[in-house]
Amino acid sequence: MFKLLRYFSLTSAVALITATIVLVIVFRQHEVEETIDNAERQNVALARSFANTVWPRFAAYLNGASGLDGNALRAQQATHQIHETLRTLTHGLPVLKIKIYALDGQTIYSSDLSELGENEASDPGFLKAAVDGVPASELIFRNTFATFEGEVYHRDLVESYIPINHESGGVDGVFELYTDVTPLVAVIRGITIEIAVGLIGAFSLLYTILYLIVRRADRIMKKQYRDLKATEEDIRKKNHALEAEVIARVVAQEALRESEEHLRSIVENAGDAIFVHRSDGRIVEANSAACHLTGYSREELLQMRVADITVDHDDGRHVEDWTRIVPGRPMTYESVHRRKDGTTFPVEVRVGAYKSGENPQIVLIARDITSRRETEERIKHMASHDVLTGLPNRYLFLDRLSAALAAARRAETMVGVLFVDLDSFKAVNDSLGHEAGDLLLVEAARRLNACVRESDTVARFGGDEFVVALTSVTDRAGTARVAENIVTAMTRPFVLNGTPATCGASVGIAIYPDNGETAEILLKHADAAMYAAKRTGLHGYRLAPVDFPEELADVAQGLGI
Fold it and tell me: How remote is the C-alpha of 331 from its chain's centroid?
């Protein structure tokens, strides 16, 4: 029985946890992006303000500082003057660090004087600001960070590269500002935790409500299932009891002779056909179900013998069998009955015997099992055939191929094995959909069957792979002609739901006994030959070489040679 509660618990829990994680991640990402955007706008404004203060005053120094090493830059008086100016300007602001770059990427000023002379030309943020002339920012975290006032610890920072444009529109240099956004990030973390807790609470409540509903439904379904099974078992027992009762009442006919009309009422209302006949097979009684089942009237049946309605009946054998029937111990077997119109149908027969004076009487209860037989045949067919195309599957094909090989050994003839692979099936399936792919496989199966004889076998091994067994082959050329016909048939356009499509096929051929004497070896050689056909060009066929070693077949198949 389907485990409703178990699957609901697993799937709903996973879904709710996933939804919570996704919502929290989306919210945090959105808030982080907002924080970066706000900090970037603030940094751009501050950088331009700083540039308006510093650049006019120290333009000569800043424009000529590129090329000086770190020691030379630290020795410049202008460096210290810029440092004091920017320190004064950033007092009370969340700006912790400022760096100025020349256009070649050299650090010509940094609030951390140890970084003077370093080159950041390869940094993506610097390149975006220096080359494209647009700001670039990102959120970073530092355990330790040097500022104007000394080192700080555990800080969330927005790092921004801001281009400084001159009047003609070009870029004079690049400012890098580090803004402290630790309080904002802490707020985001707090809100994120609150949202996560809220979502977990809400989803937990929803999960609890749904769980209770599903658990109730699961219990009801389980109870109904148990009740149904109990009812089925009760009906089965009652059916057996009813059959036993009918037979017992017929067997006791001598003692119930005065109650014949009452007994007939029971027999007439039975759903199964009931016949009463003597040991010589002459029918002496039949109910309405027997008339309906055979197509004869009651008067006609009383003039007939059991042999007249039983296809596999043999009077002598059945007389001998009936003499062995012990009253009270019925016997069950399957037989075939014939209707008045000549049609036949399978039946399940249950017989019992009783004494009627000096003559033994036989009670025969027949049940039409046509539907059951059809179901069994369908199951048998499904076990040995491909559901989509109706072709034999691998197991039936191997059985027929083994039989064909045994016949070929006795007759000293050949057997051809063709491995057929559709060349462009995946492209058709991907472009037109799986329904069109199924239609193509069905049409391909029809074309393959049209290329071979009724004594040959076409099977589908799975996907777009088909295999053909040609029996009573006289020469290799005949097998090649069949392969050529298959390639030609598959090259013709397919019309799939009104849409034309081309496919084609590659065919590999192995011949018994030239390429092997067992089904497995022949299939390996045919498969390897098919891959060789694909390698030399689509829409073609290839005969497996006569002297191709068996132990190399798997290697050739894998390498496509």
Answer: 49
